[in-house]
User: Fold this.
Amino acid sequence: MLLFASLAERAGTRRLEVPVGEGETVRDIRDRVVARFPQLAPAVPTLMYALNEEYAREDAAVAAGSTLALIPPVSGG
Amino acid sequence: MLLFASLAERAGTRRLEVPVGEGETVRDIRDRVVARFPQLAPAVPTLMYALNEEYAREDAAVAAGSTLALIPPVSGG
Amino acid sequence: MLIRVTDAPLSAEEAAWAVASPAAGAVNIFLGVVRNTNRGRAVSHLVYDAYPSMAEKEMRAIAEEATARFGLEGCAVLHRTGRLEIGETSLVVAVSCGHRRESYEAGLWIVNEVKRRVPVWKKEVWEDGEEWIEGPESLGMQQAPASMRP
Amino acid sequence: MLIRVTDAPLSAEEAAWAVASPAAGAVNIFLGVVRNTNRGRAVSHLVYDAYPSMAEKEMRAIAEEATARFGLEGCAVLHRTGRLEIGETSLVVAVSCGHRRESYEAGLWIVNEVKRRVPVWKKEVWEDGEEWIEGPESLGMQQAPASMRP
Assistant:
C-alpha cells in the first residue's frame, strides 16, 4: 500500500505491506489500514484509489502482490 | 509616403517624397501616387492608411511633413 | 511525446524543442509557476509530492487523448516535485499543431486534465504554518482548505 | 513589457524571463512558426516585411489593452522580419498572470489582435513562385490568394 502527501505525513510512512485475503476488495484493505492508523480515518470520504497505477473503485478485487495506493484529492499543476 | 510588401515590389521603391497642397487629404495624396504608379491601382480597394504611424481614414487631412503609409491587408504572425 | 515527473528544474526551451515539427505553425507553452500568494495568504514556498510512475502514465494518457482530439503534431507534459521557491516552474505543458486556436484550446484542456487526474499534491508553506492542498485550485473558494473544515 | 520588431531570431526563453513576476501563477507563451505547407501547397520559406516603428506602436497598444483587460502581470510581443526558414519562429506572445485560464485567453486575444492590426506582411515562397499574402490567415479560404482574384 502506498501513501502520499497528507496521508503519508499522518501515518508516518509512505509504504506498507498489507496481507490480502482471497476475494478481498480495495475497501477491505483500506479498512484494515485505517484500523491500524486511525489518524487516516478523516481522509476516507474524499479518497480515490489506484490499483497497479490505474484508478480503481472501492469494490475492485485485489489480487495478492498488487500495488494499492490511497489517492487524496490531487492538487498538482 | 511609405510603401510595403507587394506595393513596394510593384512600385520598385519603399519611399517616395510627395508634395502636399493645402487642405489635401489622404485620398488626394494616394491618387497622386497611383497616377504616377498605375501598377498600384488594383490594390487600392483593399488599402488602409497610416498617418504618422496611426491608422487614418481616407478623408483625413495631411499636413506638410507628415508620413503617410499605404497599408495593404496585414498578414503577420 | 515528452512526459516526465522529475525533481530537477523544468525548462520551457526543452519543451519547445520537444514539440518542434515542420508541419506545426503554432506552438503553445504553459508554465505553472509558484506565486507569492494564494487565497490572500503570503506563500513561503511549495512542496510537491507525487506518485511518479502513475503520474507519468496519466500524463501520457492525457497527451495521447489530446493528440487525437486536437490533431497535435507534438506534446510535452512535465511536472516537477520536491521543494519549489516562488517563481519556480512546477508544470510545463507544450503543444504544437497547425494553427493557433487549436494550440490554445489543446494546451488549456491538457492543463485542466493534469490538475484533475494526475496524482500530484502540493503543500503550501507559510511563515507560520503549512498545509497539504487537497483538490484542484479550479474549485477555488468552493472548497475550503482542510484546516477550515469541521 | 517587452515589445520588439527585429530581424534576429526570437527566443521563447527570453520572453518567459521578460514576463516573470512573483505574483504570476501562470505563464503562457505562443510561438508562431513557419510550417512546411499552407493551403495544401509546399512552402520553401517566408519573407516578412514590416513597418517597424508603427508595428511596435500597435504591439505596445495591444499589450497595454490586454494588460488592463485580463489583469496581466507581464506581457511580451516579439515579431521577426526578413527571411525565415521552415521551423523558425516569426511571432512570440508571452503573458503572465494569476491563473491559467486568463493566461490562455489573454494570449489568444493578443495573437488575434496582432494578426488583425499590426502592419506586418508575409510573402510565401514556393519552389516555383512566390506571393505576398494579404489578410490574416484566420480568413482562411474565405479569401482567395491574390493570384486567384480577377
